[in-house]
Design a protein that fits this description.
Blueprint lengths: L8 E4 L15 H6 L1 H7 L3 E4 L3 E2 L11 E5 L6 H13 L3 E6 L3 E3 L3 H7 L3 H4 L4 E2 L19 E4 L4 E4 L6 E3 L5 H16 L4 E4 L19 H4 L4 H12 L8 E5 L5 H8 L8 E3 L21 H17 L5 E2 L9 H4 L7 H13 L4 E5 L20 H12 L4 H11 L36 H6 L4 H14 L1 H5 L1 E5 L6 E8 L2 E8 L5 E4 L7 E5 L9 E4 L4 E6 L1
Parallel strand pairs: 1-2, 1-15, 2-5, 5-11, 11-12, 12-13, 14-15
Antiparallel strand pairs: 3-4, 6-10, 7-9, 8-9, 16-17, 17-18, 18-22, 19-21, 20-22
The protein binds 1-O-alpha-D-glucopyranosyl-D-fructose and calcium ion.
Calcium ion (CA) binds next to loops.
Length: 546
């Protein structure tokens, strides 16, 4: 049995983490410089988003060369030093493998475009229908998912940006190349892999979708399991101490069970995003809606129980480089900044699964609140600005949506201290620093024993100390509460009781069994556990008994 249940992963977006060579762009040496900080937090594994050679149209998720480091992030020597220094601190590295597509600058795609049939078959080139694209599928970043190539009178598929061409995994030569890439990094001492949108790699049939945007023809198709098993067998599965996670777009419990059951030899765990769509109006991201708390609870309960009963494993997270900041989203980044950030942390970390912390989350970093299109950098945000404009929304309405939904909210520079550019860089950063850095920064947090940072360190320590957090069964509690998300974890006679008030007002709750519980962690001064308990605004408590 692999041992990853006591581990916590910390996600780094290198571009925004720490700049050491004065160009306004974070780099690998910046990560090495901050290893002691990450050790202090308690991170076991660092997931680095892609830093390979790339035209950066999607910030590195458009890979031009999977073996070479983009010089703006550093050199192979820098990377080796990072791996070595991390290992000295007992920290592993997890690389981000973007295998659904390559950049159109990748040499395979260039050869394909030059007409080389061997490489043309690495991608999906298809004839159109009556001067229309082969199917009506939509790109996730807006517009049709096919791009016309005049030289062939054909279209190529891109589920994301037009410079991100989908790879044809039907082709065994593509699959061989993918395993080769993983093996290359394994040999260099990388022990973790995150696979980008890996449930989209098999396209079952190329048909028009009359009820949607095409998803059902390319999401969770059965061959994904075969491809993953093969990749596992030919690469990371050969090593004992690896940890793998797949990012699953619009997936289901049933599919995630298949991907993450150990006996299937595919992946260790899966990310899903359903809990981060509860503030989408009519399932549409580019809208405004307060989050639906009941739906959030239902989703957590369903996924926790579903994955547990089927023997699967969840990645647990609120934040990543694609999501707005959680404290601004389901918390309160003003009056209850500290309380709500801690409550959100507790609520996610005590569930069954492996927690992921996204850089700055441990400081309670907030959304960017940009007010001008010029401040945005993300291709998805910029595309949607224009799409919403075409739909007739006013600039004010569009900015309100971007302020709450843009991926750039997660990508502003890490706030290290109160000096120029938050200590991220002494040059103008590639994306603006959030102006609240003078209050919200790592230096302040480290000085304050009551900070959000130390709450995260405690959550990580508790996971290491208490087997019930690693292994315990998840049991929902107070399911009807409109304000409180509560659950038990149980392992033999060991019990954990977790209570989280998601609102800025008191919540009265009734508990049946409170005997012998001791308080392990709270975000408020201690109050005695009672059968009739009043939780304070955003209060969260963790109790334990043996
Ligand atoms: O994201 C996959 C994905 O579909 C979403 O998270 C997407 O960004 C969101 O739905 C848009 O609203 C992964 C990466 O995490 C992301 O940064 C990349 O842009 C994307 O794949 C393409 O590689
Ligand atoms: Ca730099």
């Amino acid at each position: 049995m692999k041992n990853f249940k006591d581990k916590v992963v910390y996600q780094i977006y290198p571009k925004s983490f720490k700049d050491t060579n004065h160009d306004g762009i974070g780099d690998l040496n910046g990560v090495t410089e901050k290893l002691d900080y990450l050790k202090k937090l308690g991170a076991d594994m660092l997931w680095l988003t892609p830093f390979f050679i790339s035209p950066q149209n999607d910030n590195g998720y458009d890979v031009e060369n999977y073996y070479e480091i983009d010089p703006r992030y550093g050199t192979l020597e820098d990377l080796k030093r990072l791996i070595h220094e991390a290992k000295k601190r007992d920290i592993g590295l997890m690389f981000d493998m973007v295998f659904n597509h390559t950049s159109t600058h990748h040499e395979w795609f260039k050869k394909a475009m030059a007409g080389d049939p061997y490489y043309k078959d690495f991608y999906f080139f298809k004839k159109g229908k009556d001067h229309q694209p082969p199917t009506n599928w939509e790109s996730k970043f807006g517009g049709n998912a096919w791009e016309y190539v005049e030289a062939f009178d054909e279209y190529y598929l891109h589920l994301f940006d037009v410079t991100q061409a989908d790879l044809n995994w039907e082709n065994p030569n593509v699959r061989k190349e993918m395993a080769k890439i993983v093996n290359y990094w394994l040999e260099l001492g990388v022990t973790g892999f995150r696979f980008d949108v890996i449930n989209l790699i098999s396209k079952e049939s190329f048909e028009d979708d009359f009820t949607g945007v095409g998803k059902r023809f390319y999401t969770d198709c059965k061959k994904v399991n075969d491809y993953l098993r093969e990749l596992n067998e030919h690469s990371f599965g050969r090593c004992q101490h690896t940890m793998t996670v797949g990012e699953m777009s619009a997936t289901t419990i049933e599919n995630c069970l298949r991907y993450s059951k150990q006996e299937n030899h595919e992946l260790d765990m899966t990310f899903n995003f359903h809990h981060l769509k509860v503030d989408y109006l009519n399932k549409e991201k580019w809208t405004l809606m307060p989050f639906d708390f009941k739906e959030l609870k239902q989703l957590f309960n369903d996924w926790q129980i579903g994955m547990q009963e089927g023997g699967g494993w969840n990645a647990l997270f609120w934040c990543c480089h694609d999501q707005p900041r959680i404290v601004s989203r389901f918390g309160n980044d003003q009056e209850y900044h500290r309380e709500s950030a801690k409550m959100l942390a507790t609520s996610i970390h005590m569930m069954r699964g492996t927690p992921y912390i996204y850089q700055g989350e441990e400081l309670g970093m907030t959304n960017a609140y940009f007010t001008d299109l010029k401040q945005y950098r993300d291709v998805e945000s910029i595309n949607h600005f224009h799409i919403l404009k075409k739909q007739g929304l006013s600039d004010d309405e569009i900015y309100a949506i971007l302020q709450s939904k843009s991926r750039d909210n997660a990508r502003t520079p890490m706030q290290w201290d109160h000096t120029l550019n938050a200590g991220f860089s002494d040059q103008t950063p590639w994306i603006e620093v959030n102006s609240n850095y003078t209050q919200i920064n790592a230096e302040e947090a480290l000085k304050d024993p009551n900070s959000i940072f130390y709450h995260y360190t405690k959550l990580i320590q508790l996971r290491k100390q208490y087997s019930v957090i690693q292994e315990g069964e998840y049991i929902p509690l107070l399911e009807n509460s409109n304000q409180v998300f509560a659950y038990l974890r149980r392992l033999g006679s060991k019990m954990l009781l977790v209570l989280n008030n998601f609102y800025p007002k008191e919540a009265a709750i009734q508990l049946e069994d409170i005997a012998d519980y001791e308080l392990l962690l709270s975000n408020y001064p201690k109050q005695p556990l009672k059968k009739e308990l009043i939780l304070r605004p955003y209060e969260s408590c963790v109790y334990y008994r043996e």
